[in-house]
Write a structure and sequence with these properties.
Number of strands of chain A: 3
Strand order of the largest sheet of chain A: 1-3-2
Largest interface: A-B, 65 and 65 residues
Number of domains of chain A: 2
Structural class of chain A: mainly alpha
Largest sheet of chain A: 3 strands, antiparallel
Number of helices of chain A: 7
Oligomer: homodimer
Strand content of chain A: 5-15%
DNA sequence: CCCTCCATGTAAGTCGTTACATGATTGT
DNA sequence: ACAATCATGTAACGACTTACATGGAGGG
């Protein structure tokens, strides 16, 4: 259901075509809510049929520019403020950790080391992206910055946790 | 694909029936990899057909106890150590934050306050769960403790971030 | 002229959820 | 007896992915 809401949210900021929206998903939303070209086009058609968006203009190469309707704005508002987010839910790293008893402790430690390393690398990438951006005062920039900050804090947390966890496994290994 | 691996991982620890596994998903794996009864039974059938598990015994009420096969262990090992985890990926809270420009700053702050509050509540629940458990030395306990610790750190991070973010929005509101 | 980018659409298949459907065993 | 719990299965539907398919427009 959420991709439809993501599309509504982006269109609330101004009219755009499926192609334009695809670009936004590939850049800004890649790490928050990935979507494929195929899904974007089918959901735009459905939102149009449901009356939540409408075709504002048609351009060259069959381009269709969509805009949000009043009904769409109402639905977006409802979803944003009156529905409970799921939050985290389903984490394939933690699932692996939970099942790590199936391999040797030394291998488990290797897994955790790799996690620490990859979180550190990602953190560095997010930091340099943050510094390269010149954040404007427009809504998408402001709230985009908040999500980026979340990403940085998340990666820092993950790296520290993985290092701690590796030591825990090492300590356990030593007592046997 | 991962539910199949979760089932393999649990069966690597010892034989169990679909019903037994359902219990584990409802308790230990609820916040890591939720699964429904329906999905567990269909995937057990598929794993059996693929030769990764087999029926070890049949009991009363049609109970089937499954056990992992050597092929299953090999597949589990491969998935655990040689495939790249996806990690975070898709967060409906962050998606909402990214789109928060569609509502009034005061409403956005309310959203963030609610996030902070709910993360704090969840953190408290995890803490008391942790204290109520007497963690044994068996593999599932050891690695289960590591995932719980992750949950605590995650909730603490989320609460702090949400409080920080609310202030950022407030500061922005003041400059207009 | 050709390559790149713009631009949209559909089909097949997997994964997951909700709901329906059934029945045996055990403890009180 | 009857309620709770044990125990499994299937059907329909929604969300998402991968792959296929097509064609126009603009720049060098």
């Amino acid at each position: 259901m959420s991709l439809r809401h993501a599309l509504l949210g982006l269109l609330a900021d101004g009219p755009a075509s499926g192609y334009d929206l695809l670009g936004t998903f590939r850049t800004s939303l890649e790490n928050v809510w990935p979507a494929t070209q195929s899904q974007i086009y089918t959901d735009l058609t459905k939102l149009d049929a449901a009356g939540l968006i409408r075709i504002a203009a048609e351009g060259p190469r069959g381009r269709k520019t969509y805009e949000i309707t009043d009904e769409g704005r109402a639905e977006l508002r409802h979803w944003l403020l009156e529905t409970a987010p799921e939050g985290y839910r389903r984490n394939d790293i933690l699932l692996r950790v939970f099942l790590l008893g199936a391999v040797e402790p030394e291998e488990a430690r290797g897994f955790l080391r790799t996690r620490a390393h990859s979180a550190t690398t990602r953190l560095a990438a997010l930091r340099s992206f943050d510094e390269s951006m010149d954040w404007g005062g427009d809504p998408l920039s402001v709230y985009g910055r908040l999500t980026l900050e979340w990403g940085k804090r998340f990666m820092a947390m993950q790296a520290e946790w993985a290092e701690w966890a590796e030591k825990e496994v090492a300590a356990l290994e030593a007592t046997r």
